[in-house]
Amino acid sequence: MKKIVRFLLYTVLLVIVVAGGFVGFLQVRGIPKYDAPQIPEFKAEATPERIVQGTKIASVQCMVCHKDSNNRLTGRFLSELPDNFGKIYSANITHSKEHGIGSWTDSELAYFLRTGVRKNGQYAPIYMPKFAHLSDEDLKSVIAWLRSDDPQLQATEKPTTPPVPSLFTKFLCLVAFKPLPYPTAPIAQPDTTNAIAYGKYLVTGRYDCYTCHSADFAKLNMQDPEKSLGYCQGGNTMLTLASNKIYTANITPDEKTGIGNWTEDDFRSAMHESKNKAGHPLRFPMLPYTALTDNEVHAIWQYLRTVPKIENDVNRQYNIDLDVPQTASK
Ligand code: HEC
Ligand code: HEC
Question: How many Cβ atoms are within 10 Å of 32's Cβ, its own excluded?
Answer without folding.
Answer: 16
